[in-house]
Fold:
Amino acid sequence: MGNIDPIIETTSVTRRSCDTARAVSRASKMTNRETTADKECKEVTVNRTNKRQAEAKASTSKGRSDSESTERKSRKRGKRGGRKHKKVKKCDSQTNTSTNIYEVLSTEEDGDDESSERSVSSGRSENSSCDDDEMETETNTKAEKPPPIVIHERCNYRDLVREVDKHTTKPAAFKFTRERTIIFAENINDFHALKRGLAKNEAANWHTYATKEEKTHGFALFGVENDATEEEIKQDLIDSGIECKSVNKMKNVKSPIYVVITSKNDTLNSLRKTAKAVTRVIVRWERLKNKAEVVQCHKCQGWGHATANCFATAKCMKCAGNHISSTCNITKEDSESQNYIKCVNCQEKHLANSLECPRYQEKVRYLKDKKKATNYANTQAITKKYIDAPIPANAWQINNGRNAPPTDQSKTQPPAEVTPPAEQTQRITTEDKEAIKEFNEFLHELKRFTQLVNVKKMTPLLREANRELEQCQSEAEKLIPLQKLIINLANPNGH
Structure:
């Protein structure tokens, strides 16, 4: 046993030495891994800084100064992160107490992630706040403006404000005309609340207009030759996926024509694709065209609004009574009943939809004048921007070719002479030519005369001679100042 103990001790020593060698090799591997991890961390931080720079450039659009400032900030952040990382590396190399070699790197990386995420999140939060503001402004600008509500009488202001404020959250605006009162709600909710409140008052006569959601499209349906009813056509269109509101058959036409009212989502192309056949009959779709210059309501017989948005008392188109036109006793066959025809608008003996109605003609005339005024204002606004240039003169003749550019006359031709306007042109007669010739000769002789005579001395002599000639009453008296003038000119000091 004594011999065995030293052997055991030697084996234990060798084992310890092997363990130490293994520990040393592990430590070297750990340092190598640490260096590779450091390189990877640096690459990650560089990539993140590049991403932050790209995001900053993309998000900000304030010019080069802002982009340069963001780049400088990102570079400073990268330098600060690298300095912190070096300090941690020194601490790690000095202590070597960490069991996980990636522990320090993970903490530093998390710190960089947090800082980068904060910077990006702060940028995103700023951008998101800006985006939210932009979205709010867009929603505010794109918010539907409610249509006005027109009451068919002039209301008392105080009573109107008291009743309107009961149904609205924001104060509405009013406009008073000679015969009507117009209410302008601030938002669409107040508009619908006002409609519900006015609908409860049966004595109120008013109308409004369709909102964007309530607007519809009208189409004309041709070719339904199987005597289908309006309900059958409507149901068939609904089954084919069309939002059909109503179907009405036209009267006094040779071939059957139906007026189909759909929602605003249905168009002419969609109807031609989805409804090629109605009640198993091939049909033709066309857009409904209203030839009337002014829209007329078939309920109150007023102008400027549709029947669907009219909440006034029904008026007959034939006798101006307080009932629907279809229930009137006046017919074409009964000639005696036609004596009771009366227009509800002008109180004359014609139908309310007659084009000869003076009120209707006034309405049409007013709309035409308004359209002309707007068109004239638009044209004036356009013409003020542009001023007609003067007629260009012929530079080839004025400058005699001195300022003309050196060009090849064989290839280019001089510009044609600009003819003056017809108003400025005058025909030159032979008498005018002779007068021009005599005037040129006079100027030539006058030039010679100024060269021979002292003009400075001659001017006061001529002035004095003219003064004396004006006082003369006969031709004989005029000879005296002329003779005096000749004597003065003959003076040798005058030459």
Notes: The longest helix spans residues 4-59. The two ends are 167 Å apart (CA to CA). The chain is about 50% helix and 10% strand.
